[in-house]
Design a protein that fits this description.
elongated, two-stranded antiparallel ribbon, disordered C terminus, 19% helix, alpha+beta, 9% strand, 2 helices
């Protein structure tokens, strides 16, 4: 039984996953010797696109490539204004992603202090 392992920069991955013989199992394979107690890190098998990664896994991985302007399509301040503080948490997280990844600037609010 397994859940998604953590991920990080590619040079830190120490496992890889593959499907088992029936296609229904997931098998984790060590890419190198792993010390007892060491965190298992895996490639989440996604294209290096921060927006897709965030959409799939609900968190951002700063080491992903940000060179494509397409990741910010629809996320400019004019297209995606700050939601109300009581908006759905997913909407608020996407807005925070846009703030961090799309070069948007805002004034600090009381909740930032």
């Amino acid at each position: 039984v397994a859940d998604l392992q953590n991920t990080d920069r590619p040079e830190l991955w120490n496992t890889n996953w593959t499907r088992g013989p029936s296609g229904e199992e997931v098998c984790f394979v060590a890419l190198r010797d792993i010390a007892a107690g060491e965190e298992l890190l895996d490639d989440y098998d996604v294209a290096p696109n921060p927006r897709l990664f965030f959409s799939d896994f609900a968190f951002d991985l700063p080491s992903l490539n940000t060179s494509s302007p397409a990741i910010c399509d629809g996320l400019s301040a004019a297209e995606f204004p700050e939601p109300a503080p009581d908006a759905h948490p997913v909407l608020l997280n996407f807005w925070r992603f846009a703030e961090a990844r799309c070069g948007r600037r805002r004034q600090a609010t009381r909740s930032d202090l």
